[in-house]
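User: Can you model how MRU sits in this protein?
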Amino acid sequence: MQSSFSKVEAISWTGTQLKLLDQQVLPSQIHYVLCSTAEDVAKAIQQMVVRGAPAIGISAAYGAVLAATEGQSISSLMAMLDMLSAARPTAVNLRWAIERMRKLTNEHVSSSAEEQVTASLKNKLMAEAVAIHQEDVSANQIMGQYGKKAILASSSAGHKLSVMTHCNAGALATGGYGTALGVIRALAETNELDKVWVNETRPWLQGARLTAWELTQENIPFVVGVDGAAAYHMTTNKIDWVIVGADRITANGDTANKIGTYGLALLAHHHGCKFMVVAPSSTVDMSLASGEEIEIECRGRNELIMLGDKMLAPENTSVSNPVFDVTPASLINMIVTERGVIENPTQAKMQQLFC
Ligand SMILES: CSC[C@@H](O)[C@@H](O)C(=O)COP(=O)(O)O
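Assistant: Here's the modeled complex, given as structure tokens:
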């Protein structure tokens, strides 16, 4: 199967602006948002024009380039880096990308003693943003092959695989190709895949809107189900693997990902499906000992009780809308990164690969 993932260009740099494929309105509209300032980028991240852990890190890096207006003081550039870094709390990739931009700025300042942003600093920040973007695409391609190899090594020959995924961890959520969807693409490319069970992913519908859209572009067979049908689908169909992305993986292998992932891991454990997390090393946060320390983003009530302009619940309904949960390492069979694959993750195995 010919891969057409390059058709999905969710993030691009026009030379002066950051161009984002608007994920709020996909798949019914193909609409691009142009960001001319760092504030525009922070707003696009908060409003989820761009979303997915690696994609928001890459966007923030380009946001830092927009923040670096020549002649402006270094202290106001640093304040804008803080603003970008705070746009969403859970995915560590955002903070990781901004830290790379901050480090470069500090190095430049200490070697040149400049107090203003110069053309030379701006060029360095631009090169770093492009590097962050390109490194992500190549990490995804490597993880696609590692994940596929690990799955095939643990499956009996001659049977095409059924996998389940949650949220969108595809080209839209990354620099290109995808993490969980990268492994799924790699399986499809060599005809190892029967079909993908896509959970719709309430409330924002990343599965039904975005993953289904990407799989349609690639002609990969899939079925969308409501999140509550996952257990039913696992009992009525042979689902070999649940494959998901991650927003933050802590030093013991605990993993934050889209709300509902923890429940899926419990279901997978009960039904004998294997559970794989696919994420680049930029998603690993060795500074946190366990998932208990991860800040979980809670978003507004309207995401949950409104569908377009239609109310789904009585006006004054109180709502809880955590948008991520934490899957304990004990429920994860494999963590796939571009540095290698960890089976049955533990703190010692994480340390070996990431320290
Ligand atoms: C490669 S993307 C991995 C995760 O970021 C993804 O699974 C996810 O949870 C995204 O959440 P979102 O709220 O859509 O940004």
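A couple of observations from the model: The chain has two domains: 5-136, 144-354. The radius of gyration is 20 Å.
User: Helpful, thanks.
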